[in-house]
Amino acid sequence: MSDDGLLTDSTNFQLLELFRNLWNVPIYHLIIEFLLLVWVIRLIFTKSYNPNDVIGQFKLSKEEEDQLIKEWQPEPLVPITPNQPIEIPGIESGKAGKTVCIEGVECLNLATFNFTGLIGNADLEQAAIDTVREYGVGTCGPRLFFGSIDVHLELERRLAAFANTEEAILYSYGFAAVASAIPTYSKRGDVLFVDEGVSFANQMGVVASRSNVQWFPHNDVMALERLLRDQEIEDKKEPRKAKVIRRFIIVEGLYADYGDIAPLKEIIDLKYRYKARLFVDESKSFFCLGKTGRGVTEYLGVSLSDVDLVCGSLETSLGSLGGFSCGDLFTVNAQRFGGLGYTFSASLPALQTRAAINAIGNKIYIPQNFLSCTEIPHVLC
Question: What single DSSP character describes residue 25?
Answer without folding.
Answer: S
